[in-house]
């Protein structure tokens, strides 16, 4: 089975568009390494996920954070594991400080996910 896919990424201030037709084996690999594609696949089957916005670069991260209207959100790397890049933010100011600070880590593919934070009921 083949599927056509289009991805955009920014590297060194240049936007690249990647398009192609991929076979199932590569498709599975892409799902394994890309959280964006994982969330899209879950939604396709009606599985609810927290509101998620993909951002490329620091400016887009700040723009994406505005969409959470002052509610708590987390950031995470699109391609990572072991919790890399996962941070909880209570405000835009906190995100801005993190982005401008020394502890900021960019995702391997340049895509950072911002996701609505879900409070534990306990």
The chain-level structural class is alpha+beta
CATH architecture: 2-Layer Sandwich
* Number of continuous helical runs: 4
| Low-pLDDT stretches | none
**Can you tell me the number of structural domains?**
1
**What is the C-level CATH assignment?**
Alpha Beta
- What percent of residues adopt helix (DSSP H or I)? 25-40%
How many β-strand stretches?
6
Tell me the strand percentage band. 25-35%
Describe the protein:
The protein is α+β, with helices and mostly antiparallel strands and 122 residues long. The protein has one domain: 2-Layer Sandwich (Dna Ligase, domain 1), CATH 3.30.1490. It contains four helices and six strands. The strands form two sheets. The chain has a four-stranded antiparallel sheet, sandwiched between helices. A hairpin with a 2-residue loop joins strand 1 and strand 2. The longest helix has 10 residues. It starts with a strand and ends in a 6-residue tail after the last strand. The mean pLDDT is 78.
List its traits:
122 residues, alpha+beta, Dna Ligase, domain 1, four-stranded antiparallel sheet, two-stranded antiparallel ribbon, 31% helix, globular
Secondary structure blueprint with pairings:
Blueprint: E1 2-11, E2 14-23, H1 24-33, H2 35-44, E3 52-56, H3 58-66, E4 73-77, E5 87-89, H4 92-100, E6 111-116
Antiparallel strand pairs: 1-2, 3-6, 4-5, 4-6
Helix pairs in contact: 1-2, 3-4
